[in-house]
Amino acid sequence: MNEIIDGGRIKGGFLISHMKWAKQQSHFDITQKMNGHLSAETLAILDSVILATAWYPFKTLIEIDRTIAQATGGDDSATLFELGRFAAQVTLNGMQKVVAASDPHKILRKQVWLHKQLVEFGNSEYIEIAPQIGRLVRSAYPWYSPVFCQGLLGYYSEAVTMAGGARVQIKETECICAGSEQCVFEISWRA
Ligand SMILES: [Zn+2]
Questions:
Q1: Cβ(183)–Cβ(141) under 8 Å?
Q2: What does the alpha-carbon distance between residue 148 and residue 96 come to, in Å, rounded to a whole number?
Q3: CATH code of domain 88-190
Q4: At residue 92, what are phi and psi to the nearest 5 degrees?
Q5: d(CA 45, CA 50)
Q6: How close is the Cα of 125 to the center of ligand 1, in Å?
Q7: Cα of 32 to ligand 1 centre, how many Å?
Q8: Sheet holding 133-139: strands in order across?
Q9: Which of 8, 17, 90, 92 could form a disulfide with 121 if both were Cys (CB 3.0 to 4.6 A apart)?
Q10: 8-33 confidence digits (pLDDT tens)
């Protein structure tokens, strides 16, 4: 899997929720354990007051996520999935109307709009495939990382759960990091 992370910006909300999750999960001081593995630039950002609505380098998020995964131990992809799930809870709890609609298609459609608010680059599109199957396609990404895609699996999965979908199944069937033109997420659920 490839990645290009030396450009692009994301909203600070990602950094805040991921650090919060890491602190909640650990029985030890995770920030201390992470510090030795973070670049000076990332350490400076973590030392500052991070604003949820301000832009930060994409690579800061990837560096933090990777370090959290290593510091917490266990399966990296499972940790990144959990980070994504938690970020969805934090982000979507503020969108009561959408969540309360109990319509997974609606909450997934909303991600296309949300994408533009939270990530400065790339396009996304949502396609309803069947009453309980949807597809999110993310394309034209100059910057990408499998760390980010793994988090999105958790994020979208939790979004569907929050909107009332049960037994959610999600798979990334194509990925830019693996040489594809786009990242394709297939999601299904039960009522
Ligand atoms: Zn991908």
A1: yes
A2: 25
A3: 3.90.1520.10
A4: -85, -15
A5: 7
A6: 14
A7: 30
A8: 123-130, 133-139, 182-190, 166-174
A9: 8
A10: 999 999 999 999 998 888 766 777 88
Does the global pTM surpass 0.85?
yes
Residue 3: predicted pLDDT? 97
Q: Give the phi and the psi of residue 73 in degrees, each rounded to 5.
A: 75, -175
Give the other-Cβ count within 10 Å of 104's Cβ: 27
What the block records as the tokens of 39 is: 């670049």
**Which pLDDT tens digit goes with each residue over 138-177?**
999 999 999 999 999 999 999 999 999 999 999 999 999 9
Residue spans per domain, the chain: 9-76, 88-190
58 CA from centroid of ligand 1 (Å): 15
Using the mean position of ligand 1's atoms as its centre, give its distance from the Cα of residue 176 in Å. 5
| 156 CA from centroid of ligand 1 (Å) | 13
Cα of 163 from ligand 1 centre, angstroms: 24
39 alpha carbon – ligand 1 mean position (Å): 25
Residues with CB under 5 Å of ion ligand 1 are: 149, 175, 183
CA 138 / ligand 1 centre spacing (Å): 8
User: How wide is the angle at C-alpha 140 spanned by C-alphas 138 and 142, nearest 5°?
Assistant: 115
